[in-house]
Amino acid sequence: MEDITSSEVAGFCVGGFLVAVALAVPKVDTFIANSQRRSLGLCERCGGLNVVSCSKCKGLGTLSKGTLSIFSGIASDRRVGQEDASMPCRDCGSKGSLNCPKCSGA
User: pTM of the full predicted structure?
Assistant: First the structure.
């Protein structure tokens, strides 16, 4: 094996730091949004709207058949020219939103 240079080690460290930051950004954003809502006296979950987006259909109200949820529409078993096979979301009743569990007291 070749010797690893200090530039390569620094590159690995910077790359690891960037990956850690990219993974932490949604959590930091959620923390800041919740603290702002709390300081304004709003619900921390919905921000005073009394509804939240359905987590199963991501607020669309429909689920695509054959689509891998990890890639959210990139990988599909549909053929070119075939119409989109979708089914209504059972969790939200095809509305795309649910009553906020914190506001409704559930």
Answer: 0.52
Whole-angstrom Cα distance, residue 64 to residue 62? Answer: 7
**Encoding tokens for residue 14?**
């910077």
Distance CA 46, CA 95 (A): 16
Q: What DSSP assignment string belongs to 4-67? A: PPHHHHHHHHHHHHHHHHHHHHHHHHHHHHHHHHHHHT--TTTTTSSEEE-TTTTTSSEEETT-
pLDDT (tens digit per residue) in 6-62: 999 999 999 999 999 999 999 999 899 989 988 999 988 888 889 999 988 888 888
Q: How far is CA 61 from CA 10, 20, 48, 68, 72, in A?
A: 47, 33, 22, 17, 14
